[in-house]
Amino acid sequence: MTTRRYKPAYNLPPIALAISLLLAIATGLSPGLDAAGAQTPDPSLDFTDAIVVAPVSLSPQEEKAVTMLIEEVERRTEIRLSRASEFPQNATRPVITIGPARSLKSFAGPYASVLAGGALATEGYRIRVEAAGRPASVIVVGNDSRGVLFGAGRLLRSMRLEKRRISLPLNLRLETSPATPLRGHQLGYRPKTNSYDGWTVMMWEQYIRDLVVFGVNAIELLPPRTDDDADSPHFPLPQLKMMREMSRLADDYGIDVWIWYPALDEDYANPKTVEFALKEWGEVFKSLPRINAVFVPGGDPGRTQPKLLMALLEKQTSLLQRYHPKAEMWMSPQGFNREWMEEFYGILRTEQPKWLKGVVHGPQVRVSLPELRAQVPAAYAIRRYPDITHTRQSQYPVPGWDAAYAVTEGREPINPRPLEQANIFSRYRRDTIGFITYSEGCNDDVNKIVWSSLGWDPEANVVEILREYSRYFIGERYRDDFAQGLLALERNWQGQLLTNGAVYSTLAQFQAMERAASPAELLNWRFQQALYRAYYDAYTRSRLLHESAIEERALGILRGAGAVGSLAAISEAERVLDEGVASRVSADWRGRAFELAEALFQSIRMQLSVERYKAIAVGRGANLDTIDFPLNNRLWLKQRFDEIRALMDEPARLKRIAEILNWSDPGPGGFYDDLGDPARQPHLVEGPGFATDPSFLQSALTGFAYQADWHRAWWTHAESLNDSPLKMRYANLDGNADYKIRVVYAGDSRATKLRLVAGDSIEIHPFIKKEFPVRPVEFDIPREATRSGELNLAWTREPGLGGNGRGCQVAEVWLIKKK
Hints:
The chain is an alpha/beta fold. Helix 14 packs across helix 15 (about 460-475), helix 15 (about 460-475) crosses helix 16 (about 480-490) and helix 19 (about 525-560) runs antiparallel to helix 22 (about 585-605).
């Protein structure tokens, strides 16, 4: 445990404690009251008229901490706390006193001797409320400059800040230091992000301050040239100038500055390319007032053989340290294929480069973090680069995400996943020095705070983290309601949307908060984000129910084709499908989502539409543009209807209609799996699963590849990553029968070849390309594979490949018993 209640210098028996409480009430104690006016067990002290005491000997970073405390209190309460440099001897007002341990005697007044003694770890602090005397006081003592900063942040999180009122819990006693040395987030000012590119220097400072309050000690910047457009219509400043400002802001607060710097050029074996890179990077290095480390990804983007990349980075390290002598160089093996991974390990083991400080584990690293730690020499630290910003086609996808959400909300939605993020955090934290998360905007704001808080105290309760988040950012009266709302938003994404009626309950909870909110609260972008998600989720479910019912009506009409004729049946079915689009449901929820999208653009520059807000692409968080994407088979069916109309005779047309109606029927003794639907994949071997394998390196996961005119079953698929096989297992087969397999190879990796093997070595087909256009293909299963009554199937992609690891993707499987 890194956080504990501070043990006072005295121990009071219960009766003495009761007397001290009475004395405290006489000196300004305000017991908390519940809705009925009864006293709650957590009384608080009134600090509304407090004075802030801080020594004159503060460093610039410590001075910034005091300024942050005063300004954030004022922003929330409209109270500007006065300030003094010495503890008042005969004060009649409460005192908030803050400073470093080295200056304890100069600012802690009568409490200096009580707080003296005992060493805190780096960045640690003590906070102590004294209520027995006059005036009531709270003392914040930082072990060092960052301890003062984080102590001020923790005090802000502990305060109850309401309009024209400040209070603190009577029993506040803390002595704490962080468990994780590195706790940070990437803040990328570039066009690709869904909000960051519209932020001003003032907005950046506020966000950095918000992160600091929750214990963040590093930010990661991006250079002017990345795998992105050269400019954004939202930029208030050119990229290098804003980068310089953000470095300055971090220096003002005394936190670290990292740079994520991809090596993008084609040929680093060419001396001219290296010369160009040194000049380009050097301009950035010398422009920034603070750089603590540079992290170069091996891929995603960039693709350079390890020996060439590391030769470049050795030169870049010398250049970096010319301007920032203590700065470090880090790199990752992201995107490396198997051969390059072995080369990378070999260089670390045999050459042991001194210029390299450590290795980063991030998206597209083909091995797990524990395996990377086992292979990398102990001399090199490991840092995490977890993707907290994406929901699919990512390092940590939402497990079993419903296709309706994947189609509409997309890859970068507003995505509070507090419990899932806590699981991801806890998996491998002991193998690293900490983390700087991968972020593409403020859509992942809740996730940032969860990681920051757990980085400080891994034993922290996630619900309490959300309560602190809600109280500090939304308001005291939302402490529990908003926290529970965030948990409900995470539950919205669990299980099948068709049966998840709690989605409507989630919206009702947020609507109740919305109705009670003040104008200022309605302008709060974090409040707006949660409302947007609640309305969006509910609208999506309402539309899914509607469109599913419409499709079922159309299929019911097709079932009567033998009686009314094929052409009449498909015409009526098509009319029903098209009417379903015209008759929009829950228009008020949809309209409110559009209003909130506008509010979010105004408040935090979220670009939820390409056309309206000039987002760089629909896939970059612009899910207002996908809010009405089809959720049923309407377009696929209309294509089939056109094909049927072109047939010349009625029996052929009726046969094609029957194929539609019996699409998933494997026939007598057969089996069907929709591998993209967690509810319809009984033969899929899932593996360990999200709980213990959140990156799905050893587990089957649900993947997505949406095309509106595909069969809905093709929008999703089961997939395995890298060289792991995708497996299915059948039992209780007829050992005397012959079987064949019908399979649909869909997915987003068309060029990847797949091989299918039964048992250990019976090849059903060799490595083949996927069919495009996508269609079912069939293969015979040798009798020897099923003779035992069991069948084990395994798909693999070509071994040893690098990149994102995807490609082994299977959408539908029919195991058909031959007649």
